Amino acid sequence: MLIKAVILIGGPQKGTRFRPLSLELPKPLFPVAGLPMIEHHVAACATIPEIKEVLLIGFYQKNQYLSQFIEDMKRKYNMVVRYLQEFCPMGTAGGIYHFRDQITLCDPEALLVCNSDVCCDFPFNEMIENYRNTCLNTGGHLILGTEASPKQACNYGCLVENKDNHEVLHYVEKPETFISDIINCGIYLFSPSIIDLIAKIVKNRHQNLGLSEEPTQLERHILTQLASSGKFFVHKNKGFWSQIKTSGNAIYANRHYLTKYRLDKNASSLAKNGEGKPEIFGDVYIHPTASIDSSAVIGPNVAIGSGVTIGPGVRIRETILLDKAELKEHCCVMNSIVGWNCSIGRWSRVEGTPADPNPNDPFARLDSDSMFDEDGRLTPSITILGRNVNISPELVIRNAIVLPHKEITGSFQNAIIL
Questions:
Q1: What residues does 372 pair with on adjacent strands?
Q2: Residue 145's beta-bridge partner residues?
Q3: Which among 108, 138, 235, 289 could disulfide-bond with 4, CB atoms 3.0 to 4.6 Å apart, if both were Cys?
Q4: What's the pLDDT tens digit per position in 21-49?
Q5: Cα-flanking dihedrals φ and ψ of residue 133, to 5°?
Q6: How far apart (Å, rounded) are the C-alpha atoms in residues 2 and 132?
Q7: CB atoms within 10 A of CB 331
Q8: Alpha helices in 167-292 (DSSP H)
Q9: Which of 243, 204, 197 is nearest to 218 (CA)?
Q10: Rounded to whole angstroms, how far apart are CA atoms 158 and 394?
Q11: DSSP state of 50
Q12: Which residues pair with 326 in a beta bridge?
């Protein structure tokens, strides 16, 4: 069975809640656990023999970052990876319709469609087996679903299933009232016949409704039509799943992927303790080019990028350090993202507030709340340093967002530093 993989990466109008980090790099290429966000998708696709080609669809201009990423993926995973650029934002279904000829080239028997901003265990093998048994001979379609708390479910696409055969009976994107605790994970296995349904809906919206400029969305316009068709089924995800909408979500996803490295016995990806090495707690990724003093203490859940320099006595936990950052002696960094080429002075402290889901609710999901509370104050979250931020010695930066190219000479708390 030939499967064509499609990853929907959006464009520069998306990812605004990821700023200032998405000002420097397309959000789908932001490194999580040492790899660009969508490389985790590509790596999962590369383990499936039925997938020979991965298509990235979005409206980012094809720049040096995207071009280099595509070349790296081809070389690293020995598979065809291509970027199809929309001429304007077309929506998650509009892009599929626009590039339908490319997607259906070679007559695939199924289309694996993924949103780029999801983090999970990517249970593709289980989904494909389910698709073979349920959908292959009937032109059916499969959606990956998971459970959420009733309070949070309304923040996602919700679906009602027939518990006997897992047919999707009803689908609503972000309903105003509770209808189900099963939510859309943003991963689908479609029959190629989905192209015909998308074409019908796109033409209807353009010709009959006069909405030629409006993007067509899978979630709002297509899945609602598929529900109750008798050909739409849900595959329940039994593992981890989260969205990566904000920078705080990236820290949470970083933790999961590092754990996944360990559970998958991908030991070469994780740092180990040893003579002349820093002290490591828990799961830590360190790029081979990083320079770290042996007296530093790192972990758990830390990812360190290329060319990073870490001085004596430094303490780091629950943090992503991007390329060429410098942490000087005895500084402390927790629950933060430190941007490219940043410098943190000696004895300074940079920390944020974890954005974890409720640990007492097994179905709780990450909240992607507004940056500000009802009183207009910054909601405590992780600390983010944009590119080329220099923090002077002996300062405290807590729950702050610092835009790129800033010299910080005073302590700040719960602030956006423009």
A1: 378
A2: 184, 236
A3: 108
A4: 888 888 999 999 999 999 999 999 999 99
A5: -80, -30
A6: 12
A7: 26
A8: 194-203, 223-226, 247-263
A9: 197
A10: 49
A11: T
A12: 309, 343
Instruction: Give backbone dihedrals phi and psi of 4, rounded to 5 degrees, phi first.
Output: -105, 130
CB atoms within 10 A of CB 227: 19
pLDDT in tens, 84-121: 998 888 889 999 999 999 999 999 999 999 999 999 99
CA distance 145 to 157: 10
Is the bond preceding 28 in cis, omega lying within 30 degrees of 0?
Answer: no
Q: Residue 10 carries which DSSP code?
A: E
268: left (phi over 0), alpha (psi -120 to 50) or beta: alpha
| Ramachandran sector of residue 2 (left: φ over 0; alpha: ψ -120 to 50; beta: rest) | beta
Q: What is the spatial distance between Cα 131 and Cα 125, in angstroms, rounded to a whole number?
A: 10
Entry pTM: 0.92
Residues in the chain: 418
pLDDT digits (tens, 9 = 90+) for 222-266: 999 899 888 999 999 988 898 888 888 899 999 999 999 998 876
What is the amino acid identity at position 30? Answer: F
Bridge-based pairing of strands 302-304 and 291-292 is unpaired
- Give residue 278's identity as a one-letter amino acid code: P
Residue 174 and residue 396: Cα distance in Å, rounded?
39
Is pLDDT above 60 for 15? no
Among 210-214, 286-290, 396-400, which stretch is predicted with the lowest mean pLDDT?
Answer: 210-214
Residue with tokens 């990806």: 269
SS3 per residue for 23-92: HCCCHHHCEECCEECCHHHHHHHHCCCCEEEEEEEECCCCCHHHHHHHHHHHHHHCCEEEEEECCCCCHH
- CB count within 10 Å of CB 119 equals 25
Which pair of tokens denotes residue 66? 């995207």
Smallest Cα–Cα separation from 84: which of 199, 6, 155?
6
Q: Which two tokens stand for residue 87?
A: 């001429």
Cα gap 182→144, rounded to integer Å: 10
Angle (deg, nearest 10), helices 64-77 and 39-46:
20
Distances (CA, A) of 335 to 185, 399, 405: 26, 9, 21
CA angle 187, 257, 39 (to 5 degrees): 60
- Alpha-helical runs (H) found in 353-412: none
pLDDT in tens, 185-234: 999 999 999 999 999 988 887 776 665 567 889 998 999 989 988 899 99
- The tokens describing 161, both together, are 């299933």
SS3 sequence of 265-303 = CCHHHCCCCCCCCCEECCCEEECCCCEECCCCEECCCEE
